[in-house]
């Protein structure tokens, strides 16, 4: 399939980059978290609160299966934890080219300092939680990715240019 899938840690810019990339490439954009919210008529936080993380992760897998049935040439932004399941990594590869937007903990802390809606950042020391999760998830993101884009200190135009350039290199 000819989709571009954006993966990475929360706050790395998957949705924002996805929206801009969809305009640039004139392709539809799908955000799996928004898709799950629409299908369940609940927010991600409500799903976590009511059913727990494991149920939410199952909904993510279902979402990927649905996307495999849809037309391709989409930009797909996925939740930060979605690639943690090996089944999901296999589905991502079937869906298209996977782009890992790599971010560092200080950047995440800065970007999310005011956002208390993130279920995995609830608790007393969100910065420590971010570092722990990034350390655990980064190798998995890298193994799932066809390309890695470092986003720290870059504006959207720089990130988009890098993605487009690397996508062209892959096609050659």
TrEMBL record:
It is found in: Cytoplasm. This is Shikimate kinase. It comes from the Bacteria. Mg(2+) binds at residue 15. It catalyses: shikimate + ATP = 3-phosphoshikimate + ADP + H(+). Belongs to the shikimate kinase family. Keywords: Amino-acid biosynthesis, Aromatic amino acid biosynthesis, ATP-binding, Cytoplasm, Kinase, Magnesium, Metal-binding, Nucleotide-binding, Transferase. Substrate binds at residues 33, 57, 80, 137. ATP binds at residues 11-16, 118. Binds 1 Mg(2+) ion per subunit. The keyword Transcription regulation does not apply. The gene is aroK. The keyword Transferase applies. One of its GO terms (molecular function) is shikimate kinase activity. Pathway: Metabolic intermediate biosynthesis; chorismate biosynthesis; chorismate from D-erythrose 4-phosphate and phosphoenolpyruvate: step 5/7. Monomer. It comes from Kineothrix alysoides. Its cofactor is Mg(2+). Catalyzes the specific phosphorylation of the 3-hydroxyl group of shikimic acid using ATP as a cosubstrate. GO terms for biological process: amino acid biosynthetic process; aromatic amino acid family biosynthetic process; chorismate biosynthetic process. Its EC number is 2.7.1.71. GO terms for cellular component: cytosol. InterPro entries: P-loop_NTPase, Shikimate/glucono_kinase, Shikimate_kinase/TSH1.
